Amino acid sequence: MDTDFIKGIIPPIVTPFTDDERLDETALRRHIDFMIDGGISGILAFGSNGEFYMLDEAEMEQTLRVILDQVGGRIPVYMGVGAIRTSTCVRLARMGVRLGAAGVSVLQPMFLKPSEDELRTHLRTITRSVSDTPVLLYNNPGRTGYGISQDVVEELAHSEANLVGMKDSSGDMTQTIEFIRRNADVGFRVMCGKDTLIYSGLNVGAVGAVCSTANYLPHLVCSIYEKYVAGDLKGALEAQFKLNPIRLMTDSSSFPVATKDLANLVGSNVGKPILPSKISPPKQMERLRNVLVEGGFPVVE
């Protein structure tokens, strides 16, 4: 199975909505082109910053159709799957493949805390349901309350031919290194899931990163990867240092609204998050504006 395309900077694209919480197709198409022009290597639909948990299946299908149409084969599009029920995840994964997604990304179930056997069965069932398509795990303990263990990842990576990689958002470099080390023999492709650790991840063998910051600073984020693979390690580290204070400032907003706030501040006009989430309050918006300006980035007033 060809997995060479799984690399580089892949933003979990925000989903633009109108004021009445309907998909803003015009804004979505514009935002896709903005990021592609910035150098991204792929798009993850329905990642955490895409507010997948707010969308029903019809809305997901409509959104994915627009994304695939606008991308037009220029870069790969990945289908994010994050439902709790295994059969729902299977249905969503198959939908993504049917519509043309190049890969499927599977988040461990939220709210529940499954045993390792239950989690293994959940992930294996979804993976086998789209056996001709590359599947990546999405380890996000900060949002689900638990991580996918090294043992579960290793067993699945070595037994399921199309389970070819993962995004690790643990923020723990030992975890990331071990996911890489223990599965290197099967060509398992690990993507860093913390925007502040792109450079660090590349240094230990990650093939790229899934970065929310690429929604609003794609040129800067992509430059970390591009400079690194070109051998300009000093330049890559400088770009990482330039990104970090901006990414860290988003932690003062409620999740995941700051990504849309910052995209709007740079002129991408992606609208508001879906209620109950709201845009950041005025003082935080001023902090977000200031950290962009201090970084030398133009802000739309």
Descriptive overview:
With 301 residues, the chain is α/β, with parallel strands linked by helices. The chain has one domain (8-233): Aldolase class I (TIM Barrel), CATH 3.20.20.70. The chain is built from 12 helices and 8 strands. An 8-stranded parallel beta sheet has the order 1-8-7-6-5-4-3-2. Helix 4 links the parallel strand 4 and strand 5 (135-139). Helix 6 runs parallel beside helix 7. It is globular, with a radius of gyration of 18 Å. It starts with 7 loop residues before the first strand and ends in a 7-residue tail after the last helix.
Nutshell version of this structure?
This protein is of the alpha/beta class. The protein is built from 12 helices and 8 strands. The mean pLDDT is 97.
**Overall strand count:** 8
Tell me the CATH topology.
Answer: TIM Barrel
What can be said about the biggest beta sheet?
Answer: 8 strands, parallel
Q: Say which CATH homologous superfamily is assigned.
A: Aldolase class I
What topology emerges from the helices and strands here?
Blueprint: E1 8-10, H1 25-37, E2 43-45, H2 57-71, E3 77-81, H3 86-99, E4 103-107, H4 116-129, E5 135-139, H5 141-144, H6 150-159, E6 163-168, H7 173-183, E7 189-192, H8 198-203, E8 208-210, H9 218-229, H10 233-249, H11 257-265, H12 282-294
Parallel strand pairs: 1-8, 2-3, 3-4, 4-5, 5-6, 6-7, 7-8
